[in-house]
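FAQ

Q: What does a record look like?
A: Structure on top, sequence underneath. For example:
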């Protein structure tokens, strides 16, 4: 008679292979982190019995971290579907646009080359340097300071007021009046007549 006492349950090494189900659970949890492991286990089983759920919970408790890491690794290498953008133009329209662009470049080519040569010419560079020196010159700086000085601004304001004053406006109106025009014409005619003698 054997003295070895038999333990409850299946003998060691004869358990069910729950690896595929636990991988499915890990994939569900990787896709939706808010999902609870027990809920994922119930969804992963075709007919979830309490015995099967408890068995998987026990295995998940021991090996869940490894299954989660494997699921994350699988998700990181899944290639995203390549979307090919549809062309915005038909091939014929695209060819016509390319041809128009080529012709425009050919037509503008000499002008662009001439502009580049002018910009790189010694005369143009000298003119740029002269303009820079003029802008930095003491005379121009003094003229700018004078134009912005209170005395110059006051003189401009006084000239504007004189120009818009009633007396100057009356003189302009008198000078442009028909009567004054007749007087000017008579003076010109008399000058011509006297010049003949």
């Amino acid at each position: 008679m054997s003295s070895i006492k038999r333990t409850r349950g299946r003998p060691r090494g004869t358990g069910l292979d729950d690896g595929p189900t636990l991988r499915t659970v890990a994939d569900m949890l990787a896709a939706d982190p808010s999902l609870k492991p027990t809920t994922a286990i119930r969804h992963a089983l075709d007919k979830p019995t309490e015995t099967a759920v408890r068995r998987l919970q026990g295995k998940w408790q021991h090996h869940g971290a490894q299954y989660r890491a494997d699921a994350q690794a699988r998700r990181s290498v899944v290639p995203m579907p390549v979307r090919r953008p549809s062309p915005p133009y038909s091939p014929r329209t695209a060819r016509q646009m390319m041809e128009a662009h080529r012709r425009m470049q050919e037509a503008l080519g000499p002008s662009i080359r001439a502009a580049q040569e002018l910009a790189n010419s010694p005369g143009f560079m000298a003119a740029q340097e002269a303009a820079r020196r003029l802008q930095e010159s003491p005379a121009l700086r003094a003229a700018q300071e004078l134009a912005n000085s209170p005395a110059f601004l006051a003189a401009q304001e006084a000239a504007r007021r004189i120009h818009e004053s009633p007396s100057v406006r009356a003189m302009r109106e008198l000078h442009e009046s028909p009567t004054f025009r007749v007087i000017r014409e008579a003076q010109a005619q008399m000058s011509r007549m006297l010049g003949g003698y």
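Q: Is there anything notable about this one?
A: The chain has three domains: 19-77, 103-136, 151-196.
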